[in-house]
Amino acid sequence: MSDTRIQDAYAILKENDRGTYTVPTKGLYPFQWNWDSALSALGFGHFDEDRAWTEIDTLFAHQWDDGMVPHIIFHVEDDGYFPGPSVWQTGRDVPTSGITQPPVAGFAIRRLYERAGDKAQAAARARPLLAKVAAWHDWFMRCRDPQGTGLVAITHPWESGRDNSVDWDRALARVPTEGVTPFTRRDTQHANPDHRPTQAQYEAYIALVEGFRALDWDNSRLHDASPFKVVDPGFNAILIRSASDLAWLAEELGEPEIAARQRQIARAGLDAFDSLWSDAHGQYLCFDRVSGSSVDSLSVGGLLAVFAPVPDARARAIAARIADLGERARYMVPSHDPDAPEYDGKRYWRGPLWLIVNYMIADGLRVAGQDAVADRIERDSLSLIDSGGFAEYYDPITGEACGGGRFTWTAAMIIEFLTRQSEDA
Ligand code: GLC
Q1: Which DSSP letter does residue 291 get?
Q2: Annotated catalytic sites, by residue?
Q3: Residue ranges in 215-292 assigned as alpha helix (H)
Q4: Whether residue 29 has its Cβ less than 6 Å from ligand 1
Q5: Best mutation site among 16, 22, 36, 37 for ligand 1 pocket (most ligand atoms within 8 Å of CB)
Q6: Are the C-beta atoms of 414 and 385 separated by less than 8 Å?
Q7: What is the phi/psi pair of residue 342, to 5°?
């Protein structure tokens, strides 16, 4: 494709490619991140299918024995990032963090397979991944849903991928931080401190890590022991979607047992999902498992829910809610409602918009037949690139590019949007 934006996006992917994995961006994030890799693989798939599969293979090469897939893999030493391996102490040959991230790999491998030019080749790459992705999903059900509710909890805000969302404020404020080892942050040296999580939040993040470390990262104990346990609709939607996509792929590749189990996971999640719906707000909300109450926070997590095959009426309501946000923000989809008191248009996940979230929401809306809102999201995403380049995230009112620059998954999402449009034309 001749669009220069596609060429620019390819250049970013190549620039951030470290051979078998990609870094999200130079400097700020020098290692491999879990959901960044799964989504970035989609971008590689447009010009180097082999390399796309390798990205996912590398991620799963570092899966833990219990099935967990860590959120960071520290392939190299780099003291430009905190917290590094000496804080996590997970005892692995290639160090990893000890928590996970949104399980979007199941969705990504179905998409890679479906689009593949050479199906036999794609099947050969996908087949060995089926059992690994399935084991990760099983880990979630075992270790993050021990009561069998159908929905999983995150035990650390970083697991959500929406690090400092307003969603976590109350739950995080209950995490005891006395005695946390003093530390020096690195993120504020790479990016504007006013755009980053606060010091108090960082202390709670590290206190949680130290608490889990004291339990030897034993996932059979961490859920119940954690002072932070939140059920995030966005996160669960990703798991449900990935489980049903994995079921599809397993069926296609002749693995009916994996398919049946994944269908069961998706079904149980969808059955329980409606308990997170709020009629008053016209969107899904988080549920705090420690306090036993719904979290009254109007974040994009409750809209990302449409990435799962939710009932049509819910998808319609989410489309309407996004259209309403579109009356109040110039660019879709803000990570927090601009009229909420906690909204902060430049502070990471407390207002700014992120293209990966836009991509998943737009995809879910299209599946539900809500193309008009999906089109608006796509248009806004592309115009942000035109004005601000491939940034980590953007201010939804001014369109200002924020955070790290030349960002891998932002580039990958632009390739996805532009390719879809050209196929549509
Ligand atoms: C930040 C984001 C997270 C992402 C990581 C690497 O921590 O909040 O979602 O995976 O950066 O890009």
Answers
A1: T
A2: 163, 392
A3: 219-225, 233-252, 256-273
A4: yes
A5: 36
A6: yes
A7: -85, -5
Q: Rounded distance, CA 202 to CA 206, Å?
A: 6
pLDDT in tens, 7-20: 999 999 999 999 99
Token output for 296: 């009254």
Distance 119 CA to ligand 1 centre (A): 32
Name the closest-CA residue to atom 9, ligand 1. 161
| Tokens standing for residue 375 | 């089109």
Dihedral Cα 321, 161, 167, 395, nearest 10 deg: -60
Q: Is the CB of 403 under 6 A from ligand 1?
A: no
Q: Is the CB of 36 under 6 A from ligand 1?
A: yes
Domain span holding position 58: 4-424
The counts of H helices and E strands in the chain are: 18, 9
> How confident is the model over 365-394, as pLDDT tens digits?
999 999 999 999 999 999 999 999 999 999
* Cα of 99 from ligand 1 centre, angstroms: 13
Q: Which atom of ligand 1 is nearest to the CA of 408?
A: 12
Which residues are paired to 288 by β-bridges? 230, 293
CA distance 270 to 312: 13
- The number of domains in the chain is 1
Q: What distance in Å separates the CA atoms of residue 385 and residue 399, rounded to the nearest whole number?
A: 10
Mark residue 323 as left, alpha or beta (left: phi above 0; alpha: psi -120 to 50; beta: remaining): alpha
Strand ranges (DSSP E) for 15-118? 32-33, 72-73
CB-ligand 1 contact for 33 (6 Å cutoff): yes
pLDDT digits (tens, 9 = 90+) for 258-311: 999 999 999 999 999 999 999 999 999 999 999 999 999 999 999 999 999 999
Per this entry, what is the length of the chain? 425
Q: How far is the CA of 72 from the centre of ligand 1 (A)?
A: 10
What mean pLDDT is predicted for residues 66-71?
A: 98
- Report CA(373)–ligand 1 centroid distance (Å): 26
The CATH number that applies at residue 198 is: 1.50.10.10
Structure tokens at 330: 């110039």
Q: Which residue has the tokens 């689009």?
A: 115
